[in-house]
């Protein structure tokens, strides 16, 4: 579920290291297997209203969705030299996985905090500067 973000992190890091001028990152998520839907229903993992409500005390499951997206990354200096308009800027990124979480549906809160802190350090940002 995070493979596109891992690809974005790899592309951003390679660009910062001067390994490439361009990178294309794309990802797709399709819900093609009915047995997965049935399994999530049996374990009551799906929210009744289909909304995740992340970090909210009223969270009661998650909502499944499909989607696809792609982006082209370019080194900032190269884009500025050609007077190209950037839609967004990847200031920092981080990927982590310790393999010791209880289950895939119970990720490690402290590990997620460390990843966010590492991303902020990588981008030389403070949390309040992120929008």
From TrEMBL:
<dbReference type="GO" id="GO:0006633">
    <property type="term" value="P:fatty acid biosynthetic process"/>
</dbReference>
<dbReference type="GO" id="GO:0004312">
    <property type="term" value="F:fatty acid synthase activity"/>
</dbReference>
<dbReference type="InterPro" id="IPR050091">
    <property type="entry name" value="PKS_NRPS_Biosynth_Enz"/>
</dbReference>
<dbReference type="InterPro" id="IPR014031">
    <property type="entry name" value="Ketoacyl_synth_C"/>
</dbReference>
<dbReference type="Pfam" id="PF02801">
    <property type="entry name" value="Ketoacyl-synt_C"/>
</dbReference>
<keyword id="KW-0597">Phosphoprotein</keyword>
<protein>
    <recommendedName>
        <fullName>Ketosynthase family 3 (KS3) domain-containing protein</fullName>
    </recommendedName>
</protein>
<dbReference type="InterPro" id="IPR014030">
    <property type="entry name" value="Ketoacyl_synth_N"/>
</dbReference>
<dbReference type="InterPro" id="IPR016039">
    <property type="entry name" value="Thiolase-like"/>
</dbReference>
<feature type="domain" description="Ketosynthase family 3 (KS3)">
    <location>
        <begin position="1"/>
        <end position="131"/>
    </location>
</feature>
<dbReference type="InterPro" id="IPR020841">
    <property type="entry name" value="PKS_Beta-ketoAc_synthase_dom"/>
</dbReference>
<keyword id="KW-0596">Phosphopantetheine</keyword>
<dbReference type="Pfam" id="PF00109">
    <property type="entry name" value="ketoacyl-synt"/>
</dbReference>
